[in-house]
Each structure stands twice: as structure tokens, then as C-alpha cells.
Automatic annotation (TrEMBL):
The keyword Metal-binding applies. Its cofactor is Mg(2+). One of its GO terms (biological process) is small molecule metabolic process. It holds the Pfam family Hydrolase. InterPro entries: HAD-like_hydrolase (IPR051400), HAD-like_sf (IPR036412), HAD-SF_hydro_IA (IPR006439), HAD_sf (IPR023214). This is HAD family hydrolase. The keyword Iron does not apply. GO terms for molecular function: metal ion binding; phosphatase activity. Keywords: Hydrolase, Magnesium, Metal-binding. It comes from Candidatus Gottesmanbacteria bacterium RBG_13_45_10.
Length: 217
């Protein structure tokens, strides 16, 4: 079914879990990198690290990077960069011709990345997937705005860059609380990726990111 979002001019993309699926192995590696970053600062044993992490994750903040920052008493952007130093996601990624074709279909839109990671690593992931960094006006992370989603700083930064009404932006992500709810609150349109069940939060729900073009074009 086509969704009436003809006025959308800008698509804002999450990365992990959106442009590619998060396998169990990659998810484990992501969590391991977060624990290692914490242990680097605290010297804790693993049991203590897990205990303190789980006390805060999804209770204090839905952003794991924010949890690392809070535990280590460091800025969020530093936590993002340090966590990524322990993570090699490229071993899980390869050129995705279907994703390349999707961005070719969507070339009439402006594109931004808004992700909770480090800019360099996100750029490396895009290259591995076959998507030129030049596809995007900008890769926006905590290195740019100081905080992670679901805080709205990154969304507001993009609105300032485009000088367009919020309703002309579509946020595409795989997490309702982190990616979509803050965008919706600001008046952006939203798309949930990775679900066959319609979302109560999103304007559009698609099983895979590849299904987006046939709905919005």
C-alpha cells in the first residue's frame, strides 16, 4: 500500500539493524565492545561490568553508548569512538546489490545518516555495503552533536541543515524508541524496518529496507 508522503524530500537513515540486519554474532560483538570499553576505564571484572551495564541499559537510557559514557564518566562521543575501537563489524558486511539498487531508486531524495556510532566506522560500513559516502549530505553522530538518539539534538541539527519543515523528512530505523519516537515528536514522518506487524509509532512499516522504495515512490 502506498503511503501519502509525497511531500518528503529528505530521508534520514539509521545504520545498524536498518541498512543491514544485525546477526546474533554481530550483536554479541557489539555488546562485547561495550563491555571492553567499560573495563578499559574501570578495571572491573566481567561480572561487575555486566551487572552495572544491565542496571542502566533500557532503564536509564535506551542507548548502550550512553550507558558506557555514564559508567565511565566520559562524553558520549568519546564512548562511541572508544567502543568502536573494539568492534570489527566489517567482517560481517559485504557489498549489497539490493541496497545499492535501493539508493539508486531513491536518488531524487536528500539523504542523511543519523546513527549512534563513530563517523569513520559508519563510513567504512557504507563502503563495504557498496554505498558511496557522497550519497549522504552528512553522517551525523554524537561526534557532531554531542549526544546520541533518542535525544533530539541530531534530528534538530538535520532540520537546521535542510531548512525544511519536519513533515518533509522521513526517519528510517529499526527501533521505535530510539529512532522513530523522537522523530515523530518533532513532526517527521517515520518508517520502521524489520517488522511484518504494523507499528503504532511509524507511518510506514516494512519487513526489510529493500521494500521502502515501492511504498514511497
Amino acid at each position: 500500500m502506498k503511503v501519502p508522503i509525497e511531500d518528503v524530500e529528505v530521508i534520514i537513515w539509521d545504520v545498524d539493524g536498518t541498512l543491514y540486519e544485525l546477526s546474533e554474532a554481530l550483536s554479541r560483538d557489539v555488546r562485547e565492545s561495550e563491555y571492553l570499553a567499560i573495563e578499559k576505564h574501570t578495571g572491573w571484572e566481567r561480572a561487575k561490568t555486566e551487572e552495572e551495564f544491565l542496571k542502566m541499559y533500557k532503564k536509564v537510557t535506551p542507548s548502550a553508548t550512553e550507558v558506557v559514557a555514564l559508567i565511565c564518566n566520559i562524553p558520549t562521543f568519546q564512548a562511541a569512538v572508544e567502543t568502536e575501537q573494539f568492534l570489527d563489524r566489517l567482517k560481517y558486511l559485504s557489498r549489497d546489490e539490493k541496497l545499492v539498487a535501493l539508493f539508486e531508486e531513491l536518488r531524487g531524495f536528500r539523504h542523511f545518516i543519523l546513527a549512534n556510532g563513530a563517523k569513520k566506522n559508519i563510513g567504512d560500513a557504507l563502503k563495504a555495503l557498496g554505498i558511496p559516502i557522497s550519497t549522504f549530505d552528512e553522517i551525523v553522530t554524537s561526534e557532531v552533536v554531542g549526544v546520541n538518539k533518542p535525544k533530539d539534538d541530531g534530528f534538530l541539527y538535520i532540520l537546521e541543515k535542510t531548512s525544511l519543515p519536519p513533515s518533509q523528512h522521513l526517519m528510517v530505523g529499526d527501533r521505535e524508541v530510539v529512532d522513530l519516537m523522537p522523530a515523530r515528536k518533532l513532526g517527521m514522518k517515520t518508517c520502521l524496518v524489520g517488522s511484518i506487524k504494523p507499528s503504532m509509532v511509524a507511518d510506514i512499516t516494512v519487513p526489510t529496507v529493500y521494500d521502502l522504495a515501492q511504498i514511497i515512490l
